Amino acid sequence: MPHLFSPYTLKDVTLRNRIAMSPMTMYRSTEGxxxxxxxxxLGARAAGGxxxxxxxxxxxxxxxxxxxxxxxxxxxxxxxxxxRVTSMIDAMGSVAAIQLGHTGRNGxxxxxxxxxxxxxxxxxxHPEGWxxxxxxxxxxxxxxxxxxxxxxxxxxxxxxHRQYAEAxxxxxxxxxxxxxxxxxxxxxxxxxxxxxxxxxxxxxxxSLENRARFLIEALDAVREVWPEHLPLTARLGCDDFHPDGAxxxxxxxxxxxxxxxGLDMIDLSMGGNTDDMREPFFPTxxxxxxxxxxxxxxxxxxxxxxxxxxxxxxxxRAIRExxxxxxxxxxxxxxxxxxxxWAARELGHEDPFELVPEDWGWWLQNFRGHxxxxxxxxxxxxxxxxxxx
Length: 389
Ligand SMILES: Cc1cc2nc3c(=O)[nH]c(=O)nc-3n(C[C@H](O)[C@H](O)[C@H](O)COP(=O)(O)O)c2cc1C
What we know:
The protein is an alpha/beta fold. The chain has 13 helices and 13 strands. It starts with 7 loop residues before the first strand and ends with a helix.
């Protein structure tokens, strides 16, 4: 029976465990580059035992960023910064994954803490802003992403697919061994997929097959340059939680098509095309896992999900029950760079310290008289301390 700490192999890549750090935009890049901050932040998580590490959504074009401070790989000059990071991740025994994306109509934004909320836009005429693009001229709305959206022509769509392929080639040069396409969270691909944002009447709009076309063509473009022996995965915005948006039930067919076009794993998440969501289940750890289990069984494709899986027992159970193949952790990875080591101790792993670099591991394994005092108190130990106080 697999468990959270079983190795996992997809194509020619073997991860040391089932714990992946989910992509998280850091808003800390200059001209799209990864620098010392990213080396420190991602290197720490690799040393902390994560099996797979995604930096963040990496833009395939300057206007495909969320903010002017977001990471990119649209230029050969950006490869070096990525290569420093992948080589550190590799040296720490983890695997470096890239999430390629284009933010579409949800770009040209302020950092959330500067704008006071997610999605507050910089006007296109501002020196730091740009003209956002989408399937149709429908702004996201809700008083935030309000500027006009340029509807892409077919020639412009084809150019974006070429940008995906170029970015994938650079990702390979930079040393990434796993590539995820970002087809979720309201960004360009997700907006093509959603009837809420896509009002086109050509071959890219209307039926499910037409709405999925942008995604499938992007995947085809990347598969041509991304080696067959390396994993190619996608995060799909499978549900807008709105009666007129993308529906989970139709995503089985979509994922089946993506699989036929060479997708190796699906990562299910939300559509993110509207703020008017009806009954989204963000706080429930099991809801996404149950959806993942259905997708895995019905389409027969390796599956992963994120959202609220930071309690080790929940994460381990999802793997043991073979509902999903990997656990993606976002906020828990931000909060605790050593989450895997902590989880291993919580779950009674025989040698949690084998997850950290050998030198630290030796010291921590052999000088362990006062475990709580080295900074990894177990949940039960903390509870006992509180009780006896
Ligand atoms: C600061 C931050 C930035 C994020 N940026 C991205 C991103 O670039 N791409 C993406 O697909 N998801 C992004 N997410 C979503 C996470 O990858 C993850 O799916 C989500 O936080 C749920 O997992 P969690 O409950 O473990 O945090 C971000 C989340 C956070 C907290």
